[in-house]
Amino acid sequence: MAHLKMKALLTTSALVAATAAVGTAASDPNGDYYARLKKPDWNPPNEAFPIAWTTLYTDIALTTGLTLADLWEAGEITGSNKEAKRFLTATAANLALNGGWSWAFFRAKQPALSAVWSGVLAASSADLTRRVFKISKVRGMALAPYAAWTAFATALSCAVWKLNDRAASHRAS
Predict the structure, then answer these.
(1) Which contacts qualify for 130-134: CB closer than 8 Å, 24 or more apart?
(2) Under 8 Å CB-to-CB from 52, ≥6 apart: which residues?
(3) Which of 25, 40, 111, 140 has the most CB atoms at less than 10 Å from its CB?
């Protein structure tokens, strides 16, 4: 069963690496657009984001990989990989949302869309954490900071939207 664990970890690591590459390709935290945006006082410094995301991406790859391995092993015993397929689909969907947020925010320059996108990502992250927790409470607790961070990111995205929507409204008047 060690081969299933390695296969699962490689699968989730590849998905996470692709997500990081997609998100990084769109992100421009030092660009003019981001610099001009009004941000709340509680906005973390730019240096915090790569540290947080590197830690979270490592966490996601490990917790989802080990969970996927458990589900594949259970599927070999029961003869059905339906749960593993559902879990992998949920993981891939979550990571697609994750990588896509940067495109909505930095490239499309749509704070409203980004705030909504972030809310969907946060809900997906909470669901992914729930799925992992169902298989392993320890791994579920280890993944919980990801759900918390995406909830925080949603609050931050909403604040940026609100602050800049008001600023745009005042400029238009």
Answers:
(1) 131/67, 131/87, 131/90, 132/63, 132/64, 132/67
(2) 44, 149
(3) 111
pLDDT of residue 168: 57
Cα 122 to Cα 124: distance, rounded to the nearest angstrom: 5
C-alpha to C-alpha distance for 90 and 69, rounded to whole angstroms? 15
For the chain, domains (ranges, CATH) are: 2-44+56-172 (1.20.1260.100)
Q: What is the phi-psi region of residue 109: left when phi exceeds 0, alpha when psi lies from -120 to 50, beta otherwise? A: left
Give every CB contact of residue 154 below 8 A, 6+ residues apart in sequence: 115, 118, 119, 121, 122
For residue 59, CA distances in Å to 39, 95, 115 come to 28, 13, 24
